[in-house]
Each structure stands twice: as C-alpha cells, then as structure tokens.
Records
---
Amino acid sequence: MVEALASAFLAGRQSAQHVAERGMHALGRRWSWLRPLSRRYLKMFSGGTRPRRQDVADFLLADEGFRRAWSKHHAKIGVRHWLLGQTRMQPVAAVRKWKIPKIESVPALAEWLGTDIGYLEWFGDLKDLSSKTEHSKLRHYTYRILIKDAGSVRLIEAPKQALKKVQQRILSGILDHVPAHSATHGFVKGRSIKTYVRPHVKRRVVLRMDIRNFFPSFRAARICAFFRTLGYPESVASLLGGACTTATPRDLWKDCRYPSDPLQLWEIKSLYARPHLPQGAPTSPALANLCTYRLDCRLAGLARAAGAKYTRYADDLAFSGDDVFESGVERFSNHVAAILHEEGFEVHHRKTRIMRQGVRQRLAGIVANHHPNVIRTDFDRLKAILTNCIRSGPETQNREAHPDFRSHLQGRISFVEMINPKRGKRLRRIFEQIEWR
C-alpha cells in the first residue's frame, strides 16, 4: 500500500489538492487524513530535487499522521488503482526556461537516443554487470592506467564507440543546454584556460588549490539526482545517470605497477569500484561542472566576503586578492577546505600554493604576475625541439613516441599562440620550416 501511495504522490502536480486527489484515486476513497499528509509531503520535497520512489516511501513510513491513520483504519485501507507511470516531467523552477527535451518514459528515452530498450538498459547497466564480467568485449570501456611521479594513480576510462555515441547525444541534447556557473572555465563554450587565469593577473597574492580524485568523486547517485532535478522521472533519470557512469572492474589492477603503500592501493580500488564519472567520457566534464554548481556558489560567496576573486578549471581552484585578502589567506584556505569536505570532495594539500608577488604566480601552467604568459622554460624547450626538428629531422625529437608527432607539436604551438600570440607566431615560423616525410 505504501508503494502505491508513493507512486500516486509522485504522479501528482505541485499542489496539495492534486496530490491528495492522486492518493484518493489510488486508494479508492476520500480519506480525511490524505490532504494534510499531502501538504506535509509537499513541504518535505517541493522545490528541490525530484525524490525517488523509495524516498517517498520512507517519508510515509516515518510520518506520524500516516502511521496513526494506518493503525486506526488499516483493515479498511486498500489499493484500488496503481499509478505506475510517474511519467510527467517535474523540473525545479529554474530549469523550466532551459531548452531540454521532454522525455517522460523509458521507451521515449530509447527513441530519443536512437536505440532500443534492451541496448539502453545494457548501456545504463544499473546492476554494474559489466564491471563483474572478465570478458573485455562485454565491457563498455577501455582502460589506461597512469602512474604519476608522486605514486598516485589516474585512470583513463574511454567509452567504446556505441556507448560514446549515446553519451554524445546526452551531451549535445541535454547537458549543453544547462548553464554552468560563471566561475567555471573548464570545458565551457566561450571560456578557456586563459579566461580562468585572467581575473588573477596583477594581484598581490594568488591561492591555488587542487581537488583530489576529481572525476571519481562524483558518485552515480549524485548524477542521477541531477537528472531528476531537471525533471526527469526516476526511471529515465536512472538510465541517463547509468549511461554516464561506470564501476571499474577490480581485475584491472592485477598487472598494474601499484603504489608501494598498501593502504593507498586499497583506497584506489575502493574509489573506482563504486559507480562514478569516468575520466574519458564526453559527458563527464559537463556533468562535473553542473554538479559542482552549489560548490561554486559557496566558494564564490566566500571569496566575495574576503575581497577576493574565484575561478575554477576542472579540479584547479584559484583565488586572488590584495592586501586584506593576503593578511588572512592561510585562514581562508582552511575555510575552502572545509567547504570542499562538506560538498564531498578532498583537498590535495600537497598542491596548495600561496603565491605572492615576489614569486612566479603559476596557474594551470600559465604565469599570471603581470599578464597571462607561458612559462619561459617551457617556451625555450619547445623552441629547441622545433629547431632540432629542422636540423636533424622530426623523428629524432619524438622521444615520447607520439603516434602523430606533427599534430602534437601543432597543439603545443596553438596553446602558446592562445596565451601569447607574439611568441606563438615565432614558434609557428620555425614549425613551417620543418621537412616532414
């Protein structure tokens, strides 16, 4: 009976009268306690993320008024009609002006994605079956483990072509229509690493902080909640979230060059074993940005209160200010760490830097002291590589065995051109003299 009433409440519109009518239809009788119960239900869930059916069932079981009614009338209360669809979109108020598609059932989602329900459920993988199989052909991702100099691990999880196509559709059809916070500069159209650095140029002090294990910190439950916030029914939101998250097979780590610390190894396995945003999926950067909206709001407000400016590029956080901010920057960094912890993130304390004017103020590989500029040693090294390509041939300089060394060099030159067009033009002239075979 609780399940039937929960389904009825979820199918109701945002008014106590309509929610009560749905409940009366499900139970087949106008019980006097339904309208007050409906008001309490709306007070609990109205205006926020659309609740799951289990959340509503838990609310009903915990509600004192409902328990009294059940104790008094349980012999007469019965289910007359099941409202199983819950197919209406119920977005929060801010979402209604965004141009996101109206998808109110699993068949409609499959049609919108250009696939059938069977494939959709396979891609959604709500039971994490692909992470439990030992056959790589049945898995949705290919994996590449990167061991960093400090011993930490980064796992690149690239979706296979069929799933990637589904994710690209979700990205272009839904996520690209949801605006990111103004402080977010990574993977946002019209913003770049240069716009991330620009607010911190010529500032007396710059604080740089880093979020540890950024992408795997976003759990599948958080991603599904985001899609429910957009108004999608639970069945649709769960499959959208499942298609954008994954759990890493544990046997992947068997032949890996593990960190020497057994505790660190256990943490890595546990981190990736739970469904999370994969670093390598086209949807992950946008979802990470959108799911950190509240974090960005809190950090931007904290920065304003301290007379500072705040920007974020993926897991890199930057704050800057003048004399007042400099005097309390250490205490400010502690407040930032506390907010990150409350929002479910962990600070990479070894990467925290307080950079005053007397030192090189470096953000994401760009110097911000007087104007955005590339690091001189990086520029000189790239210039030497290009010069040696002319003298000895490009094959002698491809020491890291890039499969397309020419494109690799062009990318590095384009980065310099974006930050410092004058220096980039000098490198471009040298590059054009290289003889490619």
---
Amino acid sequence: MKKGELTLIAFADFSKAFDTVDYSIVIRKLHAIGLSKTALLWILSYLSNREQFVQVNDKQSSLRDVLFGVPQGSVMGPVIFNLYANDMQDCLRDGSTCFQYADDTTV
C-alpha cells in the first residue's frame, strides 16, 4: 500500500461445503498422495453406508442413504474436506495466495 499498489483480500465461507464432498474424488486424491490401500478402505468405510432422516416437530421422514458429504462435527470431517479441496490454489491464475481451513478460504 505504501507503493500505491492495490491490495485486495477475499474471504469465502462455502455454504454446505461439507455436504458436497464426492467420495470418489476424495479417494482418488488420497491415493494420489500415497495413502495405503488399508487407509483408503478405512476412510471409504467411514464415509460409506450412512443414513439420515429429517424431523420437523413430531414428523419424521424415512431413512435415506447418504451418497456424498462428510460427517459434520467430527474430527475427520475437516481433515477430509481439507484434502478434498487442497488443490483450490491451483485454480488461481494470477499467482495469488490461498489460505484454507475446511470451508473457510482467504485469497
């Protein structure tokens, strides 16, 4: 700023980001960084075979399979999301710096 140059920062908190995680992409990225087959199977097991329902007042929906997303409120959720979104920096063409933790991003 002392040089009269423009300084700009953007903060992003992606809405429903944890709900958008595609399991196949997570596993592919984890394989690419060298996780063992055992670790990959453990993580896939952690993400798979989950069900959810919606309740409003005293009405409850039937159980539905959860086909994507990471469990929120868990220790592994932010870790898996970080690995899922770790290449966001590669999308910046102008040499900007990108800082990420889970669904909070600063560019």
---
Amino acid sequence: MNKQTAVAVAMVLVLAACGDDSGGIGIASTTTTTTTTVAATTTTASPTTTAASTTTTVAPTTTTLAPTTTTEPPSVLLSDEGIQAGDTWVYFGYDDDDAVTAVSAVLGAPTHDSGWTDPFGAYGVCPAPEVRGVHWDGLVLLFTRADTDFWTGGVDHFFAFTFTSIPPDLETTQGLALGDTIADLEAIYGGADLFIDESPFDPSAAIWSYDAASWTGMYGFASSQNPDGVIQSINGGRGCGE
C-alpha cells in the first residue's frame, strides 16, 4: 500500500469513528458566532438659536398739573336791596337781632355794638327815635325804630349799611369792591341808574349812586370822577344824613 492510499484509509476510519454512537473520540463541534456590528448613528441637533431678549425701558411720564386755585366768593355780598349773608338774604326791613345773627354766622362776632342810642350822634342824623349800629370792623349795619317804607314805627329793623374799610374783604353781588375804579363802577353798573358827580364836601373827589330811591339803592365816595378814581366806600339803604 502506498503512502497516499494509507492516508485515505486513515481518514475513512476517523469519519467512521465520529458516526459511532457507542462513544469514542469525536470531533469537537465548532459553533461559529456571527457578530453584526451596526454603525452607531450620531444625530447632531442643529444648535438652537435663542433670540436675545429685548428690554425696552419706557421713560416715566411725569405730568405736572398746574395748581388749581379756587377763589371762593366773599361770604357776605352787598346790594342795593340788602345783604346776602351766607345762605340768608338780609333785606332792608329784616329784624335787627336776626340780621346780626345771620352776618355773625359768616363774619364772626361783631367788633362793636352800640346798642339802641340817640339818633343824632356817631352815625350822623338818623331817623328818630333811636338807632343801633353793629360793626364788623369796616362794615356797619344800621337799625332803626322809625317809621320807614320797610316797617311801621316801633318795629326794630335793618335800614342801612356802610362799608368803608377792609377788613372784612367784601364786594357787591355784581363784583364791585373797595379799591376798584370809576371805570370798574361804570362797567358793572353803568346805565341810567348810575349817577356820578363831584362830592359836596370836596370838589376834587366824587360821589356816586346806583338805583337811588328814597329808601333803597347804593352810594359812596371815590377819590375823583376820572376813570382811575378809586372807590372809597359802598353804602346801601337810606342811611343817615350829615
């Protein structure tokens, strides 16, 4: 038997031994493990761009309001028919004590009360038999017991006022005040009812009257008859003579 034949016989014997169920030396089984390598997928997210926050600073708006000045009208107003004292109309003929109470309610207590006194004295020549003057500094209310167009004799009542100096700081119902001018007087009360003439006591000065009648009206003195003449007094009612 040559060498090649001997090798072939030997391989047959080995194969036969592997198929023998009686046990013997067999050929080790070889398990082949297949490894599949998956390439890693790398996802690169696009960078997120965050918009820069915008901060808007609004300058504070400052509104400066001009101060509101409210000028209250005087609490006592003078007229050719009486006095408006707060909410009370003190007309010529009004009871004396009630008139004093009404004016005191807005101007305070009187600075002087003459009481009932002789009609020929401090207030001039007043209607008899008696006169009473109640003062609030430059404002004087005069009361009488005489027979007038307002009341019959024996009844105490308001019949005149004089206003010659400040305080109190008063004006008429139409806005005329001490210190105003003849031009102001004419602008406010001009017309047929206004009369301006030279003063009987001083020709360089003036006397004026408005709505003059026996017992009613307003009148007073001014520094002159010229437009810039200054109003020096505002009186109302009948008044007392000199």
